[in-house]
Amino acid sequence: QVQLVESGGGSVQVGGSLRLSCAASGDTYGRYYMAWFRQAPGKERERVAGINTRGTIAVYADSVKGRFTISRDNARSTLYLQMNSLKPEDTAMYYCAASDDYYGTDAGRYNYWGHGTQVTVSS
């Protein structure tokens, strides 16, 4: 099993930046495929970005392409999400998730979740 703890959320103005972190503990972090999801009130949980075990392949939702960057440091057991040019529609609770074999959009395929960190973008 792996435990995940997100940090780095906060309140920013439109156009600002934030860097989220997700610290993993418990199991060998490098064996897991990882992703960032977000969920706004009244909306379904959406995969923002995913990354393979070695950090060589990253995939993004169309809504964040060119603005967000997912990365991982396996030596530090940490996942990151750099968010630039933030928009009000990026406001949500952000979660990191781990899977044994998947980094796609289906939240049900992920085995482990953090508790989330809130991101609020105001105009």
What this model shows, in words?
With 123 residues, the protein is mainly β. 0% of the residues lie in helices and 50% in strands. The chain has no helices and eleven strands. Strands 2, 4, 5, 6, 9, 10 and 11 form a seven-stranded mixed sheet that branches. A hairpin with a 4-residue loop joins strand 7 (68-73) and strand 8. The model has no long low-confidence stretch (mean pLDDT 96).
**Number of E-state strands:** 11
Helix content: under 10%
* Number of continuous helical runs: 0
The string of secondary-structure elements, in order, is: EEEEEEEEEEE
State the secondary-structure class.
Answer: mainly beta
Oligomer: single chain
Name the descriptors.
50% strand, seven-stranded mixed sheet, 123 residues, mainly beta
What layout of secondary structure does this protein have?
Layout lengths: L2 E5 L2 E4 L4 E8 L7 E7 L6 E6 L6 E3 L7 E6 L4 E6 L8 E8 L12 E2 L3 E6 L1
Parallel strand pairs: 2-11
Antiparallel strand pairs: 1-3, 3-8, 4-5, 4-9, 5-6, 7-8, 9-10, 9-11
Please outline what is shown here.
0% of the residues lie in helices and 50% in strands. With 123 residues, it is mostly beta strands.
